[in-house]
Amino acid sequence: MSAPLLTSLAEPDGDRPDALTVAGRSCSREALFSAAVAVAARIAGAPVVAVRATPTVETVTAVVGALLAGVPVVPVPPDSGPAERDHILRDSKAALLLTGPQGAEDAGGREASAAPAAPAAAVETVPVDLAERAAWTGPEPDPKATAFILYTSGTTGAPKGALISRRAVAADLDALAEAWAWTAEDTLVHGLPLFHVHGLVLGVLGALRTGSRLVHTGRPAPAAYAAAGGSLYFGVPTVWHRVAQDPDAARALSAARLLVSGSAPLPAPVFRDLELLTGHRPVERYGMTETLITLSTRADGERRPGYVGTPLSGIRTRVAAEEGAEIGELQLTGPTLFDGYLGRPEATAGSYTEDGWFRTGDIAAIEPDGFHRIVGRASTDLIKSGGYRIGAGEVENALLDHPAVREAAVVGAPHEDLGQQIVAYVVADGVSEAELIDFVAGQLSVHKRPRKVRFLDALPRNAMGKPQKKLLPPA
């Protein structure tokens, strides 16, 4: 018989009443388990269920109930528009849509109704009642079974559903627990959306597997993080930037054990600000929807700005670089990889090399000591200028080191002579284009300096804080 995926729920003895807190509402693991069993009893036998992933105890209950029943879960962003929502429901063939209470806050903190406008897809909406109980037992599902269908926001076409198995989730969470010394003695704090790997798989299932207490702040506000009293904090770079801009909140995190950053590169200036204010050098990690988390710095190891550490247990990596190049596409293999894209065999096949390694599409460098540095996406962040291969992320970090620059995004634009020229988009005050070009040339090799600098009021970003370079104005 296989071990339970949600280990801490199998042995609720000695539970505490605030083992799980989401947006100010708390419950014990035993109460969560009892309500989730009722969900499992209602949905057992369904092919797939969708969950409207508001930051609520009901969302956690719905996800746990589906996992207990062995029914694949499709998290649906609560603020998704009708077209995106209907695509996810239709493509996944979800039979039910589980929802939280009336007035639940969505991921952006706005009030949202219990159910969105009636979807075009024929899906029954089922509210989750935390008081509901049911007599139901079922075997632990097959580890090879699908736990989640997570929809990725690809660069082209409609989002694709990535099939994530139960054993991949278990392998990843156990590897992260080892890397971060994550135990039942920890209190995990975060306020991340519950429809991504970061907030849901790591940020909820990680706590339920290790047995650590979980405090989800509803929104990832610096004051909420400061008040939570955690030992382990998760955030994306936007969250950590805001924390670093609030010195009192940042200093309140000095009692924590680890600050973990992911989902996008953490700018070096934010890394240094956090270290100065909290006394902690942040742990950085790397992953994708299709691979879960595969690289990380360690709780007991070195942490360098701009580096995402070394492979987790069971993961192997390589860089496919052109001859003489220091950077190239990161490829990897290991037990955390997805089982393919739902109903898209050609897309699945295209994501692997001929010898079976997953192609991340990210450009990376591996140092002699095994530390990995992610330069950016191959599609947007690898710039070929004058015969040089330049990573946009390196130029962005150099720009962010200038005291006048608050945000920076770098792209390659067509150029008759160079092939591509480096163009920087910055949010800055009191500095000229020429000053920034000269500043980068003084920090990096001269050929890595921007040829043009455009000033913006703000960079376009997605819900996870990643800059959306395809939405930048023409160079």
TrEMBL record:
Biological processes per GO annotation: fatty acid metabolic process
AMP-dependent synthetase/ligase domain boundaries: 43-342
Domain AMP-binding enzyme C-terminal: start-end pairs: 394-466
UniProt-listed Pfam families: AMP-binding, AMP-binding_C
A GO term, aspect molecular function: medium-chain fatty acid-CoA ligase activity
Domain of life, per lineage: Bacteria
Assigned protein family: Belongs to the ATP-dependent AMP-binding enzyme family.
Protein name, entry field: Acyl-CoA synthetase
Organism annotation: Streptomyces sparsogenes DSM 40356
